[in-house]
Amino acid sequence: MRFLAVLFLSAFLAACSNDEPVSVPVPAPAKLIADQLFFNGPIITINDAQPQVEALATKDGKIIATGDLEALQLLTNTTTQQVDLAGKTLLPGFIDAHGHLALAAMNLAFANVASPPVGPVNNIDDLLSELTKSAASIAPGEWILGRSYDDSLLAEQRHPTKADLDKVSTENPVYIWHVSAHLGVCNTKCLQMIGVDENTANPPGGVFQRIEGSNEPNGVMEEHAMYAALMAIPAVTDPSKQMPLLLQAQEWFIQHGITTVQDGATSAIGFPLMQAAANNDLFKIDVVAFPVWRDAEQVMNSGWPIGSYQNRLKLGGVKLVLDGSPQGKTAWLSHPYHIPPAGKAADYAGYPSMQDEELEQELNKFYRKGWPVLAHTNGDAAIDQLLNAVDKARKDQGKADRRTVLIHAQTMREDQIDRTAEFDMIPSYFVSHTFYWGDWHRDSVLGPERGANISPLRSTQLRNIPFTIHNDTPVVPPNMTRLLWTAVNRITRSGKVLGPEQRVDVMTALKAITINAAYQYFEEDSKGSLEVGKRADLVILSENPLTYPAEKLDKIEVVATYKDGVSVYEKSVAVSHRPAEEAE
């Protein structure tokens, strides 16, 4: 009873003025009955003031109490759902700091031509075989599509070309998308349909690769050049084909314990699909959309709420793209690539997607409107470009709580981390690269010294800068326990440790996908930790990540996911639910 009295008294005093004495008699509180009580397993709150508790109670989708099981049982009756964790671990629901819900949906319409452990492809013959299987069910003239090919993992160590894809079909357009989503490849029919030939100039911020010694396209398209193909594909542009895929993609995130997901770089074409899903109450978890800067005015002025949810969908701000992909060797670096791509000079260092003047103009415009900004910056030259633009905008418009986010920040230097702190910016690191492409970065992309320093989590932590980590799904699956594992261990595919000095402890990594991610979204008051008054966004894990062997963190499974206190996912063997009178 002392717990309830303290709980009520604290709430009452918080509602009173700090300056005037209280003379109104305090009424006896009505008994508060919990909808759910979670107990009998580790409960990690991510709240430094109360790191672990025995039990947690919810009502109407919010957390109403945390603490001793005996005290919280006083909040239950026969209507309360008792959730016996049976030794499993309860945490705040995971928050996707950067990903692409709509892109993940679209990818489901493509054949999987990824390499292990995500797909079955080890070489170009495997890739062609998978596309040929897919083509068996495709009518003449329709598109044959593949996703997530990875030249760094193919035995040939090169991009497929139109000559390769012509072996699948010369009558159907064939398009495959690079794992980074920053490059793509067309067959000859595809190039003909989109009007790309030897007379086609490279667009700003993009490149049509050419057959050596000629101006004839070889089928590989980098960055902005690939949009010529993407915008012609019905799976991209037809909303009727996208809604079932959008809901399927949502389930993918939910099954990995994610209760808030991002749609980074939302397009004006794609946003109506998001609105339709929300208007029909199809979102089970929160979705935060960030329209790509070129569509920002149209989407942000659509009438949908900015900064608040409507039917689980909100507009969170704007997405800028300043460069490309390090694993695709299009990211913009301050020094050349360790081994330049085929056909590039020894001083090749990638290239920008935006020029300084355009970036400064766009950033100032969004700052004036009060729209938060996420900026894709993989290479350190792109990071410099953003930091310089932010510096100018702050001098022009003054300081404010903007929380501008550096997305990926793979090659962030120490001096750049210092400037990030000065400007109150948030790095969101794609630390999964240490596993998926760590060997490639060390041996080919950046070299040993720069490669070891990708995603510098520890350097950022030492400066007390709140940072987040992400999977950039669908670039890699939304597996949050594997993401934790990469941040804590930094083990590559070959089993080597990449940059051991940049590893962080498990709690720091957990905060990067919970409370820090909530802060990134301006939602730290309602999400990210298990505290009274916050939303009952919860995940149950098979093991306690704080005590489980660090090298096995990626083996931990998501047992259940709750959004606002409602179970949205449970494995077949999950947790025990029983009424209060049966609980001990």
Question: Explain this structure to me?
Answer:
This protein is α/β, with parallel strands linked by helices and 584 residues long. Helices cover 30% and strands 20% of the residues. It is built from 21 helices and 24 strands. The chain has a 6-stranded mixed sheet. A 5-stranded mixed sheet has the order 3-2-1-4-24. A 5-stranded parallel sheet has the order 16-17-18-19-20. Helix 12 crosses helix 13. It is globular. The chain starts with a helix and ends in a 5-residue tail after the last strand. The model is unreliable at 1-28 and 580-584 (pLDDT under 50).
Name its key features.
21 helices; single chain; alpha/beta; 584 residues; 5-stranded mixed beta sheet; 6-stranded mixed beta sheet
Brief sketch in words of this structure:
With 584 residues, the chain is an alpha/beta fold. The model is unreliable at 1-28 and 580-584 (pLDDT under 50).
Uncertain stretches of 5 or more adjacent residues? 1-28, 580-584
Work out the strand percent: 15-25%
Mean of pLDDT: 91
Number of H- or I-type helical stretches: 21
Shape: globular
Strand order of the largest sheet: 7-8-9-10-12-11
- Beta-strand segment tally: 24
**Helix content, binned percent:** 25-40%
Report the C-alpha radius of gyration, rounded.
25 Å
* Class derived from helix and strand content: alpha/beta
Largest sheet: 6 strands, mixed
Distance between the termini: 18 Å
